[in-house]
Design a protein that fits this description.
- This protein is mostly beta strands.
- Helix content is 0%, strand content 41%.
- The chain has a four-stranded antiparallel sheet, with no helix packed on it. A three-stranded antiparallel sheet has the order 3-4-7, with no helix packed on it.
- Strand 5 and strand 6 (74-79) form a beta hairpin.
- The protein is rod-shaped and about 80 Å long.
- 17% of the residues are buried.
């Protein structure tokens, strides 16, 4: 099985009992990015905002982070960076955060992070 977030180079040579082919062609391909890890959230009651961050992943064009409130409201953030700032967060709410990496093939969604805002 190939690892996520890797670049591979392939060189094919045909071999028989009598000879071996020659080829100067090498193909390259990248696997889908890995799901972002090392998720962190930081909540500030005074600014009514949550900062959600994660570790960069290889082979990624950008990230899509989501905040889902216990009222069902979904807020999405798209960024080439590894951090999103969610503002206008409701007081006394629970939020679930996750993120995935976008490439020609998307990563799996990260494990969720949960935040409870103050009353």
């Amino acid at each position: 099985m190939l690892n996520c977030g890797e670049t591979y180079h392939v060189h094919v040579i045909a071999i028989s009992d009598d000879c071996e082919s020659t080829s100067n062609n090498t193909a390259m391909f990248e696997t889908a990015p890995c799901a972002p890890t090392q998720l962190q959230t930081s909540y500030s009651c005074s600014s009514n905002g949550i900062i959600f961050s994660w570790q960069h992943t290889n082979n990624t064009f950008y990230y899509v982070a989501k905040a889902v409130g216990n009222n069902g409201q979904v807020t999405e953030c798209r960024t080439a960076d590894n951090v999103c700032h969610f503002t206008n967060i409701g007081c006394g709410q629970s939020y679930m955060f996750n993120v995935y990496a976008v490439s020609s093939c998307n990563s799996e969604v990260s494990t969720p992070q949960f935040v409870q805002t103050c009353e």
